[in-house]
Amino acid sequence: MSLNSKNSTFYSKVLLFGEYSILFDSNGLTIPYAHFNGVLTFMNSSGYTDLDFAKNSNLQLKEYVTYLQQHARKYISTDQLSEDINKGLYFESSIPEGYGLGSSGALVAAIYKAYGINRIEPKAGLSKEDTQELKHIFALLESYFHGKSSGIDPLICYLRYPLFIKNQKDISSIGISRKNIKSDDAVFIVNTHQTGKTAPLVDLFMKKCLNPGYIQKIKNELIPTTNKCIHSLLKGDITSFYTHLKQLSKFQLQYLKEMIPDEFLKYWEEGITQNDYLLKLCGSGGGGYLLGFTRKFSQVKKELTDKGLEVIPVYQEF
Asked: What are phi and psi of 315, to 5 degrees?
């Protein structure tokens, strides 16, 4: 394997739009996020290593390779992977687990890049057939971590281009317009300092969707609003974008309130009423990071930091 190649570092990801609604085939928009990243490497190789972290990661890989041997020999050279794990292979990662940033997706992408059989290479403008094949492979590889995976997280970590998800069967790399973007425009994340658990929150959401009134709200309000946010952002229509984003923020506050940690509800409400920033879920919620958008990042970062919040830019000037 080529651990020192230029492609061996894998970024985290941020799903800008589509959490929960994507389960009912809304559009989605996801971007790579280089601030957090991971790389396959060996213990005692160059660079400082937290030995306990490395040993724990190596043990997790030993468990993972057993799953791959049973389910993914067609796609992964498990003998070579197992041999390297015994030599001290681990995943050196700064991507926090349980924060909705694709920690398992980055690991899966790294494993496939290093050990994939008949590997599909990452490149811009990948055909829909190859994109779907990668998504299928990644869904299988990542299902070990989540019970079920769409494959989208490893896909964005592997390709490292923004992805527009029209639906589960139509995914393509895309550029985000910089038209009408000003220097203080930003996407940012706010650390809740809590770990979120995806599976129970998705289960809760699906149970709520058994209520006919609730599922109508999802289909008639959440999905169209999500799609409008994405399309206005991609077009560079920032005025319309913030109009739709405000509706989305209000909707999540009202109908997905269980996914927002209680102590952050006041900041969410302040964003809506003061109009300086807007918050939304980042992934399934329940902890992890909250996602924020603002046209006044310098001011908003100072205000939120002064209140004791940890604010990290994701995409300044978008």
From this structure: -150, 90
